[in-house]
């Protein structure tokens, strides 16, 4: 693409922000020399200053006659470097007189006045002989909290004879002659400031620079530093992902590692340093101090360790973030910073330890040199640092102890490296592997600490029930959680802890484990939570456990319950016996992800426009060459090359080419798409360039989507508030919100019935006392159920997934005296005396439930009678005051089970369970004569059982029902269904090999079921926010989803993530077509509503052909015999894959009497027939493919009011829509035999219209319903 003359722009993600040379001024050195000559005075100190500053860009106009191009560099009126004025004029490599510091544009977040103190935190001391070069690290924070990072290298030069050579020998090699000539040596420092924490890489770079500086003359120092800074300013930071950059700094090959993903930090330091300095127990203490946001000060005699160790601890906390002051190095003049009253993390030299300990109160003092953690006064005697929860601590300690922290041991079997860079690379590879293992260990520590947080967090309303969470902790751990919860970041505590567990799943397990979610039965959410028989059997019966269970019974606002005494735990983590932790294991040896390197081309000097252009050209050529060698499976690596090439072309001023490269990120990895950079780029473009964009379809769409789209969506408020009981009367809407926040129940319809039950009388509101009583009754019942302990013989008679939801008081029954227990499956009697199990009945086996009275002497005792189908005898229980409640509950469960069996919908049982427990809570709340009447308002299935009958044909054909909206507050419509067959791949997990059902819900939500068990495989994830119209499996590991927002989203079936998008359509994508019968199609056709048809190469994701259907609204398409059959509403058009019209079926030719349109069609090639449905017609029409002009055959659909979808399965056509059943509108499915052309079955499928159909290997048909029901039915195909 031709572009105007390039304009040089600054590199957006360059490594270098600023480079500075610091040291003592000539005047102060002269005074120091005089002091040093006095008898008895050694190593006099002087004040450091900034001597020179170098700020990019360094491209200057070529002033030599060798340059032929007349290119003007930006910012030419402002010098990119300055040097302090010398006493004598000095020859400079560049022309012009050095100006003042104001001549240079210093980055806003760099304070040049404070920089000398940080670069020489111990001061500048003149030495009698040169000392060893030293490096330390800085972290600079601006007022907005943005951090920049500095690496400082100190080296020594002789004070006298500035034109002499300093041979660079270390002080132990210096000759007496050199010392006598120089007299004394002064330190200088080179400081590199970057926006990225490349500690090791920049340390290596400065080490290479020092080899040149120590061999050059004094007047050449600035030239070398400027050349060094110029190189770094032309190196981009690599994008997140598997690609690292390598640059030859001579003599070292410098590696700039990328971050693992956009949410992860850049890690370019040795994460095992704290593990070498501290014991694992002490590491836990430091992490606890950070989690509880203490005022912390690190101490060391080595300035470098202060920053490195502190940064390691910040990485250990990821994805949690330290939100407070972070100053890892304080010079002697900055010690007053530690008097700050707020939380902070700072670092001081060990020489100041006693001073800080005596002067400051309440500080956590961490001595890196001896590995100790102490407190300054007045907490010296009693360190108020809570212990990490015991099991998490033991696991962490044992896994740290299993790490191999010494490279010598790990590489002892390797031969010696004879090449410097080879040894350097071997060390880097070992460190990267160890860093990954340490990250896994620390991430699992956080997960073990906060694993249960998600169970008490309401995502929809962003409410965390902290009181309930604390009650689930053992007493000795509660202090830890109280301090973590009570710190300033309490509101961010919950979402961050959720992200911890999410990160652990994604990075460590790479497995969909539900250990951190609510308990489940058959993959569906259970509300409320109860321990299963399996968990009950595993549960310990120790005194600690019993005490813990008793605590859970206490409710919020009840402060007077005494905590039972438990065995005190070890006060010091050093005394924990890690070996005794049987559940612990060694650190997981997780294989690191594959990484790749790209070598940056050489940078040639002098740094004039031509040389920079040559460097950028070489860079692009190398990137393009590397891209040409990549296969279709290397999209992640290809995306990084596109990103880098886009950056370089942007710097060259080739804006259109840069935007095209960024556009390709949609097809390769959208996560690294630089939206802000694209916006800024477009803002810089001239009118002719914007006009060229309008002529380029890809860029036009890009600009429209990123730049010209209407106002930005408001940022989601992640603030989490603690759950509180209401303090004022609640109307219906407020009541719904409060109940959902409490986590009791989410379903809005159930909450409406609960409101009617609690709102006694004519007042349609709930007073706060009633809500509090109801909440406490619910939680008490939940706690009592947690405390149920069944004898082993009883548990053996129950299924492992059964839960005891309700226990009666001890009553007399026909089977003896005992307590009636209710699970989701049955009623049984827990006999007293010698505990035993007597089954009363399963809910399926109940024939009749009656509430009567039994006469005893002169008393009439309320009695519950249950008649079973398989038994002649009737079970009776003298439940007395509980009888009416149990009557309501058993009838509701009985009806729920019957309807669950009839409708093949197990969720009905869960809904019935929730209802009966709400009945129990309502009766406990009201405690009046009207309580039973109020509780009866919650009854649903008992009232609806006669209205929800299922026709015999439907019952025989229906196999199962699932609910993708489980756990949502409202049902959501099923827009699209897709079944993907299973496949066996040794490299994949077993669950990945199972067949799956993909359900597209409203607003871009997708839920995935394991079709082998019909359990949820992947909970809801989103692709965009618009309605999803179509789905297809394009490859074994890819599902394509077409959206109303005109984007095709590509889902990776293994990671269940969407990192690729196809954005070539301009209107809603309505259909995706692959060749039938192909297991791995090479081509996919996509259709959009505006009539555009695109053919995609599945491997390259490139458009191989495109055509436009003129003047029509495209609705769907089919591929048949190499032609596309396109339904346009008014006609069905047959075109070749190149867009050539073959034939057309116009609807007005067959329907002259009234206006209508095609809704959908199916082709029957064997019979050469086209079957179609039309709007406003309750019939299916059949045309002959031999002559579409003939009048169609008609098949009437009885009681049908609407047709919405149709599919072909074997020799049948399944038609979904809406129709009447027993006078009520229902979702119906009609099964038509294609040979006899008659309706074989009329299936009453759903409570709402059938919106979509799909086939599962021609063995089952799956139907999805509208938003009134939002369920999926699985039908058997005969």
Automatic annotation (TrEMBL):
Gene3D superfamilies: 3.30.450.200, 3.40.50.11500, YVTN repeat-like/Quinoprotein amine dehydrogenase (2.130.10.10). GO terms for biological process: regulation of Rab protein signal transduction. Signal peptide: none annotated. Residues 72-499 form the UDENN domain. Residues 80-102 are annotated as: Disordered. It is found in: Cytoplasm. SUPFAM superfamilies: WD40 repeat-like. The keyword Phosphoprotein applies. GO terms for molecular function: guanyl-nucleotide exchange factor activity. GO terms for cellular component: cytoplasmic vesicle. InterPro entries: cDENN_dom, dDENN_dom, DENN_C, DENN_Domain_GEFs, TPR_DENND3, Tripartite_DENN, uDENN_dom, WD40/YVTN_repeat-like_dom_sf. The keyword NADP does not apply. Keywords: Cytoplasm, Guanine-nucleotide releasing factor, Phosphoprotein, Repeat, WD repeat. Forms oligomers. Interacts with 6 of the 7 known isoforms of 14-3-3 proteins. This is DENN domain-containing protein 3. The lineage of its organism: Eukaryota, Metazoa, Chordata, Craniata, Vertebrata.
